[in-house]
Amino acid sequence: MIEINNLSIYYNYPKQNKVLCEEVNLCIQKSEFITIMGPSGCGKTTLLSAIAGSLSTAFCLTGDIQIDGKSIVDLPIEKRSVGMMFQEALLFPHMNVEENLLFGMQAHLSKKEKLEQVNQWLSIANLEGMNQAHISTLSGGQASRIALLRTLLSKPKVILLDEPFAKLDEHLKVKFRRWVFDTIKSQNIPAIQVTHNSQDAIEGEVIHFEQYQKS
Amino acid sequence: MKKTIFLFPWLIGVIFLFPIVAGLIGTLIFSLGYLPGISDTLSNQGWALLFEHSSLWQSTFLTLFIGFGATLLAVIGAVLACVYLDSIRLFRRSLFLFLSVPHFAIGVGLIFLFSPTGWFIRAIDFFLFEISEPLGFSLVKDPYGLSLIFALIIKETPFLIMMSMVILQQINSYRQLQLAQTLGYAKESAFFNIILPQLLPKLRLPIFAVLVYSLSNIELSIIIGPNIPQPLILLFHYWFLDAQTEYQYAANAGAIYILGITLLCMAMWVGLERLVIRFCLWRSIRGKRDSLVIYIKPFIAGYFYTFLVLLILSIFALLLWAVSKQWFFPDFLPQSYNTKNLIKYSVRLFPSLLNTLLIGGVATLIGLVLVIGALEHESFKPKYQHTQRYFDSPLWFWVAYLPLIIPSISFMFGVYVLFLYLDLNHTWIGIFWVHLLFIIPYLFLSLSSNYLSFNHRYVVQALLLSHSYWKALFKIKLPMLAKTIVFAFAIGFSVSVAQYITTLYIGGGRIGTITTEVLSSLSGSNRNVLSIYTLYQWILPLVVFFIAFLIPSYQKVR
Question: What is the ipTM metric for this complex?
Answer without folding.
Answer: 0.85
